[in-house]
Amino acid sequence: MSQLNIVAIFTVKPEYDKEFRVEFKKIVEASRKEAGCVRYDLNQDTKNPLVYVFTESWASQQAIDEHNVTEHFKHFKAFIDGKLEGRQLHILKQLF
């Protein structure tokens, strides 16, 4: 199976921005330690500081599936409930 990339875009409600920074750091650090994680970065939009973009690379779909059942991912998923203005998720395969 081939490497897959994820782009996840979160628009945070302003009143939760400070809390999100703490939680973002936790999930990035924990995810980077996973066996199937190739890359896991968090970026911030330069025009709207409430927009955060995760760029992730995983060794396989199985690695993504395993990530999705980790305690840190489940904690993060529960944490974000009701605290976002918007969310987009794109799972990508590299063409070139």
List the keywords.
globular, Alpha-Beta Plaits, alpha+beta, 96 residues, oxidoreductase, 3 helices, single chain
Can you describe what's shown?
It is a single chain. With 96 residues, the chain is of the alpha+beta class. The protein has a single domain, classed as Alpha-Beta Plaits (2-Layer Sandwich). Helices cover 34% and strands 35% of the residues. A 4-stranded antiparallel β-sheet has the order 2-3-1-4.
Tell me what portion of residues adopts beta-strand conformation: 35-45%
Q: Give the SSE order as H and E letters.
A: EHEEHHE
Distance between the termini: 16 Å
Q: Percent of residues in helical segments?
A: 25-40%
Question: What is the total number of structural domains?
Answer: 1
Rounded average pLDDT: 97
**In which order are the strands of the major sheet placed?**
2-3-1-4
The profile of the biggest β sheet is: 4 strands, antiparallel
The count of strands amounts to 4
The CATH topology comes to Alpha-Beta Plaits
CATH class descriptor name: Alpha Beta
Number of helical runs? 3
CATH architecture: 2-Layer Sandwich
The unreliable regions are none
Radius of gyration: 13 Å
Helix/strand class = alpha+beta
Principal-axis shape equals: globular
Task: Please specify the SSE layout and strand pairing.
Elements lengths: L3 E9 L4 H16 L4 E8 L6 E8 L2 H7 L3 H10 L3 E9 L4
Antiparallel strand pairs: 1-3, 1-4, 2-3
Helix pairs in contact: 1-3
Organism: Zophobihabitans entericus
Keywords: Monooxygenase, Oxidoreductase
GO molecular function: monooxygenase activity
